[in-house]
Amino acid sequence: MPSLIRPDFKRRRIVINGAAVAGTIVTAPSVLAMSDDLDVTILAATKGQPVRAEKVTLDIAPLVENGNTVPVTITVDSPMTAGDHVLSIALFNERNPQREVASFTLGPRAGRASVSTRIRLATSQKLVAIAHTSDGAYWSASADVIVAIAACLEGDD
Question: Taking Cα atoms as reference points, which of 26, 4, 7 lies closest to residue 15?
Answer without folding.
Answer: 7
